[in-house]
């Protein structure tokens, strides 16, 4: 009979009812403190990235049997002996036909310790914009290299993108370690080479792990075949890497999305400012300034989806109530703290990545999206191109082409309270939009990113005991 | 349990397993609310697709929260295939009346009656929904259409943006997708085009159920185990009805089942289940080895690219 018959009968067959019950309870008990890690994968075309993602999903039991059945059917139809796990992740007809990943896909899985959102990005150089897209929200980027070839151009490119975007953690997965006879010296040489490069880029933290994605060594479970390595597997590292909440630190940034004014009998005078805290922690009683007008007031209340609270942290969608009646609308920025306020300016520099096929040129008019603000902008000048391998400055071209990185100067019609890019919470992130049809032309970060990067080191993770604790 | 009406208005009691929202659920809720508020900020005529299914119920719930205490700035749209579960239509009408919302119901039958659509030989109406959907969006000049689709449902949906540009025919071109960075959502579009918005993109089936439990959201009864007359077609338990089943050779039997998804009766299958209340449903989802759509949607099995092909034609 058809495979769909087995679908029905297997519906509950994976574990016994008692086991399911215990599993559900264990899972739920952990739920309140289970944190979310967003990560992205990057790697050159033949480094086995799809295999790694497929292996990670498969071995962490995140692939369900009907998905696996579909992969097996397609693999068999193509005459393959073993299921091609990359079919799990290549979702578009064109991707399956060509056997390559074209566009970013997002995948979801959870373990007892964490919930994961994986941005699975293409490796081809012509899809660099998609790597940037995936990395823009990532807490960690996994960069895959082939142990036989080591660090290649794409490795440097992806590391440079991660550095530019300020991704706090990098994981260097040295794959196909079985094909170099599990040689520790090969691992150390590649890790050292990457170390040197990442220092130049000023990458925050790098962890190197030897793996075989095809055979599953050190992907989910630690491999006994790599006895000289005593650190965590990739999944263990993803589960335990320290997540800092830097977005919640520092002064408050709150781009106003909407004014909530019910004008109803129950709420005749209610006037709230809806938005999502981009950075900092906002508290009732705090003095705030509204930009660009510069008027000050204080927070008289914070409403959340679950009722009023005393404070709200970065990432939370809330509605702020102010003590004074100030003129405030969508696009304004509420900032906390007394010290350095972002100063509204009409001219500033930004590092941009060209997203669209149509070129960007000096003198071009566009719309600038900054937080919830939308304002007309002119590309005053293309200052210099950024070498995507080294982040070095190159002479400015006459136009920017797809996937180019460049520093530009932007001039806006109205003053915008921009400030240098801070990756967590995406303060300082911008979008240039074509007003004619809405095409996203370029994405960018305010300020000179190259100068703001600082040095760091690559490290082999600390040896772990069997229970996963540091030795 | 009652339909949610405002902060602290719902019962957050739960049934034992989860009595409060996890950090993860609160993050997903904040993200969805941010997205819904961006829709209100960027568009003139947004509409929520509301079928009475759990995902659209969740979208409506989050939207009511996003603008509370102001009224919902969106109307609702339901494409009624004519083969909907009566329990779901009753739920839909009750929620709409209770919340004082405006809803447009586009009936596939009307399109068949006036000749704009032709009934398929197999009687399945799910694929026919696309035309009434796209026609109604054009007639009512909606510039944003909010849906409950999730990226974990299906692999072409995993490629979907949160703000997804559609052409003048409602079609999705995966190669024309705009990169979406940080949380800067770009709703600008050319005249005639519109944007589909998916606030639940980053939710999984389990997240949806955990949130429904934590918030005490009422669902149509068919999501919970009940006795029902069903018959086997193509390996799925379909419910008997005027839509064209059972046919000769297909035998009715009474089983204890529930639904994981709700759609057109001709292609939405039930699963055997004793899960009569939400904690049991959640346990069942944690234990299952079959995806939501794999277990209950016949139309996704038509070909390897069934969903992608329908989305290209304008399906949500």
TrEMBL record, chain A:
Residues 1-20, 450-471 are annotated as: Disordered. One of its GO terms (molecular function) is sulfate adenylyltransferase (ATP) activity. It is an enzyme of class 2 (transferase). PROSITE patterns: G_TR_1 (PS00301), G_TR_2 (PS51722). Pfam families: GTP-eEF1A_C, GTP_EFTU, GTP_EFTU_D2. The keyword Transferase applies. It comes from the Bacteria. The keyword Nucleotidyltransferase applies. Its EC number is 2.7.7.4. Keywords: ATP-binding, GTP-binding, Nucleotide-binding, Nucleotidyltransferase, Transferase. Residues 34-246 form the Tr-type G domain. One of its GO terms (biological process) is sulfur compound metabolic process. This is sulfate adenylyltransferase. It comes from Nakamurella flavida.
TrEMBL record, chain B:
Its EC number is 2.7.7.4. The keyword Nucleotidyltransferase applies. Keywords: ATP-binding, Nucleotide-binding, Nucleotidyltransferase, Transferase. Transmembrane segments: none annotated. Gene3D superfamilies: HUPs. The keyword Transferase applies. It comes from the Bacteria. One of its GO terms (biological process) is sulfate assimilation. Residues 297-316 are annotated as: Disordered. It holds the Pfam family PAPS_reduct. Residues 46-269 form the Phosphoadenosine phosphosulphate reductase domain. GO terms for molecular function: ATP binding; sulfate adenylyltransferase (ATP) activity. Belongs to the PAPS reductase family. CysD subfamily. PANTHER family: SULFATE ADENYLYLTRANSFERASE SUBUNIT 2. This is Sulfate adenylyltransferase subunit 2. It comes from Nakamurella flavida.
